[in-house]
Amino acid sequence: MFSKACEYGIRAVIYIWSQSKKGNKLGVKDICKEIDAPEYFTAKILQSLARQNIVSSTKGPNGGFYIDIAQENLRLMDLVRAIDGDKLFTGCGLGLKQCSASNPCPIHHEYKAIREGLAELLKTKTLRELADEVLSGKASLHSIVS
Amino acid sequence: MFSKACEYGIRAVIYIWSQSKKGNKLGVKDICKEIDAPEYFTAKILQSLARQNIVSSTKGPNGGFYIDIAQENLRLMDLVRAIDGDKLFTGCGLGLKQCSASNPCPIHHEYKAIREGLAELLKTKTLRELADEVLSGKASLHSIVS
DNA sequence: AAAATAAAATACTATTTTATCTTTTATTAG
DNA sequence: CTAATAAAAGATAAAATAGTATTTTATTTT
């Protein structure tokens, strides 16, 4: 469904958010250790998100990634769009170039419902909510390490 | 969502079905012309589906692909599984190796609902239904050519 | 039997995605 | 001002997906 880049990006941003709340900045290494993601690849994703002003960063000692309070209501949708674009929310399920209610593919209506359900989910969830779930221990960003 | 191979495969099988009903066998060239898909690539997909006994084929003059009546109740789900496997129906939305109700990622429950909705759609739709929609003109397998 | 046809199999190419490594630039602590 | 630190940028590599071309095999028509 989501690309690997998007999966890592979401996990990273949720973690950054949960720590920014405490005023901490995080290095890529720390982030990747926590969310179990490849370091250099995740760095690229975060750099792209920084250019898009979704996360902030500072270089040098004590530098790292953080998220501005102003982004408190950032929706999961905004993040997915920033990384994967919106092909997931626009394209035809069977790949037709033109597919609409007036010239539908055989699963147009049903697929549209699924896709809209997904969009609704992503629009509803804010990064704040997601980070809170992790902070409260209700949800996790990595597999159990035993 | 689906891979290109899967998109072409679904369109091809629906078209083959709609013609098999009339007793016609179809060559790859004809199929690809109708569904606007790359010829050699689609051929490979169909050959794989033939090995999996989802479509049938005969070589030589008047040969081609067709679908056995016994496959009348073939579900879209079976086709998607045969081409893309079931990663779409099993994996975690955020890519966690282990993600379950007891150790959930932050979108586990909501994502599960979306995924199950999709699975339900694919299990409900039979190839017969989809082909009928195309035959009756209610749905289309290619963009409008004006 | 020979020629024609069409799928099957194999090999090859291109593009995109994922991942890693190296160099550069900015910032801060000493 | 110099070291050290950490992100930014760029270059490269590996893997997966998408797409094309060629050869082989089976079947049918003449």
From TrEMBL, chains A, B:
Pfam families: Rrf2. InterPro entries: Tscrpt_reg_Rrf2 (IPR000944), WH-like_DNA-bd_sf (IPR036388), WH_DNA-bd_sf (IPR036390). Gene3D superfamilies: Winged helix-like DNA-binding domain superfamily/Winged helix DNA-binding domain (1.10.10.10). This is Transcriptional regulator, BadM/Rrf2 family. One of its GO terms (molecular function) is DNA-binding transcription factor activity. One of its GO terms (cellular component) is cytosol.
